[in-house]
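### Sample
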Amino acid sequence: MPYRPTLRQLEYIVALAALRHFGKAAKACHVSQPTLSVQIALVERNLRVVLFERASATLTVTPAGERFVRSARQVLSTVDEIVEDASQDAKTLGGLVRLGTAPTFGPYFLPRYLPGIHSKYPNLQIYIREDRPASVEADVSDGTLDCGL
């Protein structure tokens, strides 16, 4: 399989191309300057291409680097869209869930987890009914309840 740079490495390269300074790019990426330098050198070595010309006072993006940065920006943008789409699905999950629980279980278990469920899925409504375990099981079987604990 051919070498594939990581998303983090793509972020480093895009930042360096934008800021034209290793120290500033490292700071923007919240890493040390040596970490950023090593990762960029690793990409260049594995791809056998020079992305940046390093002179004593200046940093220049090579033509190959410009093409790489343009593609890296597209990849990172696409990844951002994927993440946004996935998080929108979680936010839009909604409807009614009918939950049955035994009185010896629900009052102790549900208060611990329901706040997290409600914050993650604000459009989800949960109907809770406490009953004897045999009744909960029967109601799940006949579809009166969606699930039972």
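The chain has two domains: 7-89, 93-148. This sample (LysR substrate binding domain-containing protein) is used throughout the tutorial notebook.
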